[in-house]
Amino acid sequence: MRWSGGRQSGNIEDRRGLGPVGVGGIGLGGVVIALIGYFVFGISPSDTLGALQQGAPAEQQQGVRGAPGDDAGKFVDVVGTSTTDVWSKLFADEGKRYESPAAIVLYDQSTVTGCGLGQAAMGPFYCPSDQKVYLDLAFWSDLESRFGAQGDFARAYVIAHEIGHHVQQLNGQAERAGRLGSHGETSGSVRLELQADCYAGVWAKHAGPMSNGAITIDGADIKGGMTAAAAVGDDALQRQQSGQVMPDSFTHGTSAQRVRWFTKGYDAGSPGACDTFGASSL
Question: What pLDDT shows up at residue 175?
């Protein structure tokens, strides 16, 4: 994936270097983050919730807003800006206005979020309460070493997936998922996550053409994205954790499903192809 010539919008809140924060009591947001940590990245909910209960955050962290100067920060900014360009066009095609996330927050170890304490062990996540994406860049090493997903596009897929959750927040799909349950093979949670994978594929289809060639994504890049999608399937993570697959506890879909919906979005290039809620088979 070539990206260095891509446009930066500076919609980054850089909290790196501010250090970890203390944590306090948890609410629903904390539970949501704990579940994200387990079902996306294999972190035990009890570990996450235990950390969330250790103490109270003394103050909100104030990061630096703007375009980062380092390559790692630039990459996130370029990909985030590209998602805004793509989704703005796709929304406009439907007579709607797209609003980008409030920020993509870069942090080290832990940080305060609208959903409770964010920790690096949870992996990247989107908080609907403050409409921000949170990312500790140390996760890229885990993506390669633990999940075997290498290359810049595997990283871009992760960012685009989280932006997909923001798109769902804007178009009402997140609320729709809440009425269909949070666990099980056909639950609202699974349909929501597979749709975010599909949206990531839609972005990938348009990212190059809409950047006038400043971003290029080829077949090898797409393969890397599918590797990342497969690595975080519920079945793969459960085998890694316990050696057993428990479909009744699925929240994100199997590896095969995640790859299938990412590919479907990429092949179609249209969010209309991502109707996981209307699909009779996932």
Answer: 78
Judge contact between 23 and 56, C-beta under 8 A: yes
| 111-152 pLDDT, tens digit each | 999 998 888 888 899 999 999 999 999 999 988 888 888 899
Q: Find the helix or strand (DSSP H, E) in which 119 lies.
A: strand 116-119
Q: How far is CA 14 from CA 6, 65, 83, 104, 119, in A?
A: 19, 6, 19, 8, 15
DSSP 89: H
Residues in the chain: 282
Q: How far is CA 42 from CA 34, 124, 225, in A?
A: 10, 13, 19
pTM, two decimal places: 0.85
Which is more confident, 193 or 178? 193
**Can you give the pLDDT at residue 233?**
84
Give the torsion through C-alpha atoms of 16, 19, 22, 23, to 10 deg. 20
Q: Is 202 helix (H, G, I), strand (E, B) or coil?
A: helix
Share of the chain above pLDDT 70, in %: 83
Measured CA to CA in angstroms, residue 123 lies from 35, 52, 112, 183 at distances of 11, 15, 15, 20
* Terminal-residue alpha carbon distance, the chain: 29
Rounded Cα–Cα distance for residues 197 and 259 (Å)? 8
Cβ 138 vs Cβ 110: under 8 Å = no
The pLDDT of residue 43 is above 50: no
CA-nearest of 152, 130, 81, 138 to 108 is 138
Q: Report d(CA 111, CA 63) in Å as an integer.
A: 10
Inter-CA distances, 90 with 63, 84, 87, 205, 215, Å:
31, 10, 5, 12, 18
What's the confidence (pLDDT) of residue 51?
43
